[in-house]
Amino acid sequence: MRVQENTFAAAQAGDPVALEHMLVQLRPDIRRYALYQCQRSSAIDDVVQEALIILYRRVGTVRTASALGGWLFKIVARLCMLPALMFMRGVEDLRRVEDSSHFSRMPLDELRIDVVRALESLSPTYRDIILLRDLQEMTISEIAACLDITREATKSRLHRARAMVKEYLLPERSA
Fold first, then answer.
1. What domain range includes position 87?
2. Same structural domain for residues 87 and 117?
3. Rounded to whole angstroms, how far apart are CA atoms 35 and 113?
4. By the 8 A CB rule, do 139 and 128 touch?
5. Residue 29 sits in the same domain as residue 67
6. Which of 26, 84, 93, 141 is deepest in the core (most CB within 10 A)?
C-alpha cells in the first residue's frame, strides 16, 4: 500500500482534495484486504465503505503514511468480525446456560441479521453509542466529548444499550 507522504500529510491537515485522492487511491487495497479477511462476499462492499468512512474520519490519528497499511488492515479485519464482536460485547454477561446454547446453535448468518435488527430497534441515542464504542472503537472519554455528555452518562447509556440488544436477542421466556 503506497500513499505519497505529501498527500497523506495534506489529508491529515484537512485538505479535501488530498483526502479524496487518498481515499480513491486506497479503495482497491481496502477491497483486497476485505476479500482476504471477510468470509462472506456479500459483506465486502459494506466493509470497504465503512473502512473508507473510518479512514475519512480518523486519518488524523494515524502517525505516518507507512503505518497506514497496517492500520487499515486492522480496521478491515475488525469490520469483518463486527457482527461477532457486537454479539460478544452485547451479550458477554450471559449467565444462563440455555442462553449460551441458544446462540451457539444459531447459524452465523441468522445471528448477524438478528444483531443488525437489534441495533436498528434501538433509538438513535443508544444505537450511536454502541456504534461509536464497538465500530469506531472510541474510548469512553472520546465518546463523551463527541456527544457532549459526561463519562458517567456515556457508560450508563452504553450499559443500557447493550442490555437492550441482549434483551432483543434473547428468546422470550415462558412464565
1. 82-169
2. yes
3. 20
4. no
5. yes
6. 26
